[in-house]
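Ticket #372: bound-state structure for 4'-deoxy-4'-aminopyridoxal-5'-phosphate.
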Amino acid sequence: MHPRDLSDHVEYQAGRGIEEVARELGRDPSEFVKLASNENMFGPSPLGAEAVRETATDVHHYPTADHADLVARIADEWDVTDDQVWLANGGDGALDYLARATLEPGDDVLVPDPGFSYYGMTARFHHGGVSTYPVERDDGFSLTADAVLDAYDGERVVFLTSPHNPSGGRFTLDAVEEIAEETDEETLVVVDEAYGEFTDAPTAIDLVRTRDGVAGSNPAASRAKRDDVVVLRTFSKAYGLAGLRLGYAVVPEAWADAYRRVNTPFAANLVACRAGLAALEDDEHVERTVETAAWAREYMTEHIDARVFESHGNFVLVEVGDAAAVADALKRRGVIVRDCTSFGLDDCIRITCGTKEETETVVAELNEVLAE
Ligand code: PMP
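RESOLUTION: The complex was predicted; output attached.
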């Protein structure tokens, strides 16, 4: 017996941790700053971290299968009903549930190129095929309804990332709506808002239909509410809980029942759920994170001696020439960034927004590397 042959399958290119890099270079981990995985520059939400400590004595219990408190709190946040919230083991877990809920063998999905690799991977796991639409790199990367619709050929699921990883660009809500409108009724549009807290653009949850038809965080919006749009969010970025693996999808009301048929028995772990619930009250941490990310984007844009693409996330994409060489030189100088070769951008690196000090360090080191 052999495992399935997934040899032509894209692999998930997880960023390497500080310990791994330090070991490779025979140095102490304290000598490194990691700005490679779009993690939170201030660490976890303090309220979330406190909940983690407090939950330690309860972890011999299974979580409640419906995670009711957290789900109700998230539903309240977005003005949707509880059963529209599909809790999962990270945004990645929510992508798995969506693939399980939508794909029949042989169905295709349409994903951005360059883009987040896990969309295609989970489609393949679920016996789906993958086609791509271009995120055009003309005068900056642009995410347009036309590019998606020109490539669209009846795929079952269309993935939109907004803000987009790795470019930092975003779709307008009009574009999302146009894509949902112009694709078949049986096509689902997934709007991945993993970096949604970092942009001031309205969330696509405004488009998702609820029971009474007046959904979304902005009840005044006059947008039509849809049955073919799902929005993905995560606690990994602005809330600083990446290690706990907690994310969710907001689905149309009509989808409510499907969750029970596709989810893992305990979709998210007890510690993650308690921490997530606490972190949702931690406005101070989120605001500080979002403000610092905005500052860091601006600082990097102004001070890096290379082209920095406009970003709405907690990272920037920078055109540096030989990305692998520049990322390697930075690593030796103690700064770990993301070489975007695996995204098909072998002349770009992606730098996560750090604290003031980290951001100033990476800019200074990068400028020296570029001048060499
Ligand atoms: N979507 C995008 C665009 C991402 O960049 C990431 C994480 N890097 C995710 C989803 C998944 O995040 P998580 O599973 O940590 O919630």
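RESOLUTION NOTES: The chain has a mean pLDDT of 93.
TICKET STATUS: resolved
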